[in-house]
Amino acid sequence: MAAVISASMLSKHYGDLKAVDQVSLEVEEGSLFGLLGPNGSGKTTMIRMLTGQVRPTSGSGSVLGIDVIAHPVRVRQQIGIIPEQEAPPSFLTAEEYLAFVGKVRNIPAAKEKADWWFEFLEFPEKRDVLCKDLSRGTRQKLMFAQAFLHHPVLALIDEPLINFDPVMQKTVKGYLKEFVRDGGTVFLSTHILEIAEEICSEVAIIHHGRLVHTGPVAGILGQQKHLADFFLEVVGKGTHA
Ligand SMILES: Nc1ncnc2c1ncn2[C@@H]1O[C@H](COP(=O)(O)OP(=O)(O)OP(=O)(O)O)[C@@H](O)[C@H]1O
Ligand SMILES: [Mg+2]
């Protein structure tokens, strides 16, 4: 299997703070890869570097074989992204926002694809509502839809499930599982360890910017441990942002 994400000694420093410190990892095609870690451990910074939104202080990274430092725009054209806690533009309706994404990404039959998402995530009645007037979970549905509207082969998604109710979590988990079954790859950060345990094939744990564990989830469950217990063992109690 080919690596679709490859990070080599990636670091991001903000002054004296090492937000990400020499992280190397590989994500194979077809994985549902979970990036775990306490608040402030560097997950979002890692995702921003891999999606060409933050320039690393040192190290290198490639996504779908494209260098993220040399060609950040090309990387973003290829992949789906859900940024951390980002809302769609307040002044567009839900439907206008997906049409906008369709135009920017040059997506064929974007209207039909958007219609499918309105039905699949059960919010067709909200299509003409301004994004500023949508509930938090509905805004998250839109962010989810925009990330997958162009049928990317790889999605990097930062806490994509946190605002969803249990029914919607189930729907979205099902979508992600099917997405990787069909050959796609997902790199997601999450604090919901039950979900990571259920859907991720592999996890990496970062703590104070450093990679402290990486490996298949089956290996952890094989030790008769839940991921949450394993996580607490690995990062200890002294976590802080
Ligand atoms: N632009 C920035 N300027 C200065 N410090 C930053 C910047 N972005 C992130 N940091 C710091 O880098 C560290 C890692 O932050 P990051 O957002 O990557 O953590 P995280 O693992 O995503 O946390 P959370 O679980 O709370 O989302 C934190 O200490 C944060 O304050
Ligand atoms: Mg974060």
Rg, Cα atoms, Å: 18 Å
Total separate domains: 2
Gap between N and C termini: 36 Å
How many strand elements? Answer: 10
Taking the sheet with the most strands, its summary is:
6 strands, mixed
Structural class: alpha/beta
The neighbouring-strand order within the major sheet is: 6-7-8-3-9-10
Identify low-pLDDT runs: none
What is the general shape?
globular
**Each distinct ligand:** adenosine-5'-triphosphate, magnesium ion
The CATH superfamily name of the largest domain is: P-loop containing nucleotide triphosphate hydrolases
CATH class of the largest domain: Alpha Beta
H-E string: EEEHEEHEHHHEHEHEEHH
Query: What's the number of helices?
Result: 9
Range of helix content: 25-40%
CATH topology tier name of the largest domain: Rossmann fold
Beta fraction: 25-35%
Mean pLDDT over the full residue set = 95
- The CATH architecture name of the largest domain reads 3-Layer(aba) Sandwich
List the helices and strands and how they pair.
Elements (H helix, E strand, L loop, with lengths): L2 E12 L2 E12 L3 E5 L6 H8 L7 E6 L2 E2 L4 H7 L1 E3 L11 H11 L5 H11 L15 H13 L5 E5 L7 H16 L3 E5 L3 H7 L2 E6 L2 E7 H5 L5 H9 L6
Parallel strand pairs: 3-8, 3-9, 6-7, 7-8
Antiparallel strand pairs: 1-2, 1-4, 4-5, 9-10
Bound molecules: adenosine-5'-triphosphate and magnesium ion (MG).
The site of magnesium ion has 4 residues, from helix 1.
